[in-house]
Specification:
Number of domains: 1
Order of helices and strands: HHHHH
Helix content: 55-70%
Number of helices: 5
Structural class: mainly alpha
Largest sheet: none
Strand content: under 5%
Number of strands: 0
Shape: globular
């Protein structure tokens, strides 16, 4: 937990300084959340939700609708076909 907090603090400082490190840390946190929710450690939750939404799974549709508020078609744009379980 201390490592996560330290990494996130460094990511915040990097973002303020204009480094792209913050984006990499954000993706890492996204993948960690997906793994904690029984997904692949190499896939983002957005990619997994996009695959689930494509198959009509309720949780994927709900999460993708929420993410669309911030970035239109976010889940569809972030699907990683070569990662996680293929739901096609």
């Amino acid at each position: 937990m201390l490592m996560t907090l330290t990494g996130n603090l460094l990511a915040l400082l990097s973002a303020i300084a204009g480094s792209d490190r913050a984006f990499r840390v954000a993706v890492s946190n996204d993948q960690t959340l997906n793994a904690a929710l029984d997904g692949s450690e190499d896939e983002t939750i957005s990619s997994r939700a996009g695959k689930a939404a494509r198959e009509g799974k309720r949780w994927g549709c709900v999460l993708c609708r929420l993410l669309n508020v911030f970035d239109n078609d976010h889940c569809q744009k972030t699907i990683e076909e070569d990662e996680g379980e293929r739901l096609v």
